[in-house]
Design a protein that fits this description.
Layout (H helix, E strand, L loop, with lengths): L5 H6 L2 H17 L6 H15 L11 H16 L3 H16 L8 H27 L2 H24 L7 H4 L4 H25 L3 H23 L8 H10 L5 H14 L3 H10 L7 E7 L4 E5 L4 E7 L2 E7 L5 H62 L5 H24 L9 E3 H11 L6 E3 L8 E3 H21 L5 E7 L2 E7 L6 H6 L13 H12 L2 E9 L2 E8 L5
Parallel strand pairs: 6-8
Antiparallel strand pairs: 1-2, 1-4, 3-4, 5-7, 8-9, 9-11, 10-11
Helix pairs in contact: 2-3, 2-7, 5-6, 5-9, 6-7, 9-10, 12-14, 13-14, 14-15, 14-17, 14-19, 17-19
Length: 561
């Protein structure tokens, strides 16, 4: 069987608490002048060391701690009087009050509330009257200490007590405990002040003190939360906790400006960690990131390491870190890490954008090469034929093909930006398109005259070469369909239609938005052509997908010139 930890069982048990308080009660009953008070208090102090929530009782006591406990016990016993008893009861009241609401079970909390009531009554109605030699109050307290308070001890022994984990029971709010200690000290000293200055009885002085302290607490409670436009002490206290060492708002503004100003992750990280030099309580700090490591200042024995994603920061201080300072450091490191991760995502998006631009440029050039190879294949077939017009057709088409090859080679050597796309009059481009496809069975519908409007010819060629190529490929499976291309000038609209079967709905819905899987390919050509058209202020859309009428329409985007 596993060994049971007796210290844990005693510290979470009810009988340890009851016996400890019973020994204290015996010492209070016999008084500080009795020879029995010293053994009773020594036994009480020993049980307190097992019960105390300040450090774990199962840990081995070192020589320094043992010497301190021994010296404190000897001094307390040598100078034992009612003032020492008042100080001890006040300290117990602060420790117990700081852990009352840690326990989840209602009965357990009730036991500790009874203990608080016992300590408060014993202090104010028995110990303090003995300090001030208030005989009338001592007579009333005699009844209390001998008959009433033992009933509280009996209730503590009879109420059900549920064991809870050691980690929960060890939790102590030091600030709350200190506030309770100071509040109870203020009650005692306030009663003393009223007795001395007002020359009144102890009970009357105690009631006045409690009344004034109650008014002050009521006023502080009203000021703690916002009322009538006042921000409240709670907000001011929270700002104080955040402004440890430096104004938090100004530091955050500087950090935000650094994140917006610096172009990359490395420069931002250097600027952010340089701002940590504003903290006077830091002797130095170091950081480790995937791209860089560095150190500023001196390394000390007191350090705090914080990890935020791939960024690790280690702070070195001249003095040990207190809990409030650690909370402040964690918040600052989280802010630095948040902007660091944002910069990393921004850098990744820029890299993805560059790769996407390279991919799109390569895809366009690939489709240009494909179209030129198809044109070259057609010209090769014509050259091998023995028809009379073959030589004349070659003389007409070869200069156009040469121009397209030169334009593609120029793109490979020096990629063009959107504003540098070469222009061509609309009527000239229309004539070249008809000439390239004059031996295909395509109907051409156009007005008698076309304007001299300049258009981005490479993009127009990419769009309509893909549309015509898809329609001709469709004719291979549906031999009797007709294809016609129409152009309108006011406003400018160009359409490519065929009389074949419609596309499936799932393919038509995503055709110009991304790559789609179909029998003839992935639709990448039309997708790239549509993206290029959008970048230059044009739109390509499937306007009709019905049996006998499948039409694509190409036009300037709304608002484009």
């Amino acid at each position: 069987m596993p060994t049971l930890n007796i210290g844990n069982r005693l510290r979470t048990g009810r009988w340890l608490l009851v016996v400890m308080v019973a020994l204290l009660h015996g010492a209070l009953v016999v008084g500080v002048k009795s020879p029995w008070v010293h053994p009773l208090l020594l036994a009480h102090f020993g049980l307190f060391l097992i019960w105390q929530p300040l450090w774990r009782g199962e840990r081995e006591v070192g020589r320094g701690a043992l010497a301190f406990i021994t010296v404190a016990s000897v001094v307390a016993m040598f100078w034992l009087d009612w003032w020492a008893m008042a100080f001890w009861l006040t300290g117990l009241f602060g420790l117990v009050g700081a852990r009352v609401f840690v326990f989840r079970k209602r009965s357990t909390r009730l036991i500790y509330l009874l203990l608080l009531a016992y300590l408060l009554a014993a202090l104010l109605l028995w110990v303090v009257p003995n300090i001030f030699s208030a005989q009338s109050s001592i007579d009333s307290g005699f009844i209390l200490i001998n008959y009433v308070l033992p009933v509280l001890l009996l209730l503590m022994a009879l109420l059900p007590f549920y064991k809870e984990t050691v980690d929960v029971s060890q939790t102590v709010d030091f600030v709350y405990s200190l506030l309770l200690f100071m509040l109870l000290t203020l009650v005692v000293l306030g009663a003393l002040a009223f007795m001395t200055l007002g020359r009144m009885d102890y009970l009357e002085a105690l009631l006045r003190t409690l009344f004034l302290i109650g008014l002050v607490l009521l006023a502080l409670g009203g000021l703690w939360n916002p009322r009538f436009g006042f921000s409240g002490l709670q907000f001011m206290f929270s700002r104080y906790l955040l402004n440890v060492g430096t104004p938090f708002e100004s530091w955050l503004s500087r950090l935000t400006e650094t994140a917006q100003r610096e172009p990359n992750v490395t420069s931002y990280l250097r600027g952010a960690v340089a701002m940590l030099e504003d903290f006077s309580w830091l002797s130095g700090f170091s950081w480790q990131s995937p791209g860089e490591t560095g150190q500023v200042g001196q390394i000390s024995a007191y350090s705090a390491a914080m990890q935020e994603g791939e960024l690790r920061l280690t702070m070195y201080a001249r003095q040990p870190f207190n809990p409030t300072l650690l909370l402040h450091i964690q918040l600052l490191v989280k802010l630095i890490g948040y902007f660091y991760q944002a910069k990393q995502r921004e850098q990744s998006l820029r890299d993805i954008t560059r790769l996407q631009a390279v991919y799109e440029t390569g895809s366009r050039l690939t489709h240009d090469l494909k179209n030129m190879l198809q044109s070259l294949l057609s010209l090769t077939s014509i050259a091998q034929s023995r028809e009379d017009h073959a030589q004349q057709l070659l003389l007409q088409q070869l200069p156009l093909l040469t121009q397209r090859i030169e334009a593609t080679l120029l793109k490979l050597k020096q990629p063009l930006h959107e504003g540098e796309t070469p222009g061509l009059p609309l009527h000239a481009w229309w004539d070249n398109l008809r000439m390239r496809n004059q031996y295909q069975e395509i109907g051409w519908l156009a007005p008698d005259s076309l304007p001299d409007r300049q258009i981005p010819a490479p993009m127009f060629d990419c769009v309509f070469d893909n549309l015509i190529d898809n329609a001709l490929r469709k004719r291979q499976h549906e031999a009797d369909i007709t294809i016609f291309i129409e152009i309108r000038t006011e406003p400018l609209r160009l359409s490519v239609c065929d009389s074949g079967s419609p596309m499936p709905k799932n393919i038509a819905a995503n055709l110009l938005r991304g790559a789609v899987v179909s029998e003839n390919g992935l639709g990448i050509g039309l997708y790239q052509a549509a993206r290029w058209a959008t970048q230059l202020g044009y739109t390509l859309a499937l306007t009709s997908n019905q049996p006998g009428k499948v039409c694509f329409e190409f036009k300037p985007a709304e608002g484009a010139k």
